[in-house]
Fold these 2 entries.
Entry 1:
Amino acid sequence: DIDFFKKINDNFGHATGDEILKLVALTLAKSVRKSDIYARAGGEEFAILLINTIERGASQFSQTLRKKIEELVYTKDTIKISVTVSIGLTILNEKDKNIDDMFKRADEALYISKENGRNQVNIKL
């Protein structure tokens, strides 16, 4: 989830917001492996499915991705916008009946990241 994305749209316009979305999406595309799946889940949210990845690897990937995005600066004319993301992480477990169970836990972890100040990764197993 891109932090404070609504403020970007409100302060700089939807065209600039779209450019920020593209910048983040490009960073995701450059960060994932060919076997991974990533998509825009809606609004300013993205989802990534890391195939055959254990918790430690997923956590390391998430922190690395968060730092890459934190280093992004969108620049156009006199506008400079820094971008951060809050990340919710989970892993598939034997109790999951379907992918929605995983997404629910990831969403809960995401809200912990937001409540704790944003620009961080939290995991819910």
Note: The first strand starts at residue 37 and ends at 42.
Entry 2:
Amino acid sequence: GNNLQITVSDNGIGIPRELYEKVFVPNFTTKSSGTGLGLAISRQIIEGAGGKIWFESVENTGTSFFVRFPIAKHGG
């Protein structure tokens, strides 16, 4: 209808439930390298544009990230 939604999925190990609240926190990472800023910055940009980002994950199956933006209506 009035939204554009993008889904990015993987078939990795998933995200443990105890880490869900930290996924979008700046400087949080499960990797041995990196800054842990990517998802925090992405969330800020997406929400600043009126969108929403969230994820669903199943351990040992994979994770899907969803990004939804409202479709702008142009007059004319």
Note: The first helix runs from residue 38 to 48.
